[in-house]
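Q: I have 148 residues here and want to know how they pack in 3D. Can you give me a structure?
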Amino acid sequence: MKWSTIALCVCIALGLLSLGLMVSGQTYDYQASIVALRTEDGTAATQFKSGQFVFVDVQLTNIMTYTSASQAYLVVVRATYSQTLYGLAAFSGSMTPGQQLEVIPAFEVPSNAPVGTYDIQVMVFTTWPSNGGYPIAASVTTTFAVVP
């Protein structure tokens, strides 16, 4: 018997079964996806200039099936270039199971941002990790370019 099967049997026996999304052995209560990166006028874009705002259009779904209670979330968006942080945005709220919505945090491309390809990472927590928050969705990523 595999360890994952044994762990599932133990969870069922202890009443700890969570019917959320399982990614890499981790069960999540929310599902996040990046719909698009957008400019200030809402146009989808993959290239931005220094001083422009990048709006990260995220679709968030509460996929919990084991409770009807609302659960708080915190969406954190990080933009990095060569592992250096150049943008940070956050949005928080709460959703009931089955609810789906779009959140659109944004950040400004700094005036000193180098030209090149940037990584965007979207993470969803219960609250700030420094306050005991933990991930409730698998992180999702995309890229964009800063152009002259």
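Q: Anything worth noting?
A: The chain has one helix and eleven strands. The longest strand covers residues 84-95.
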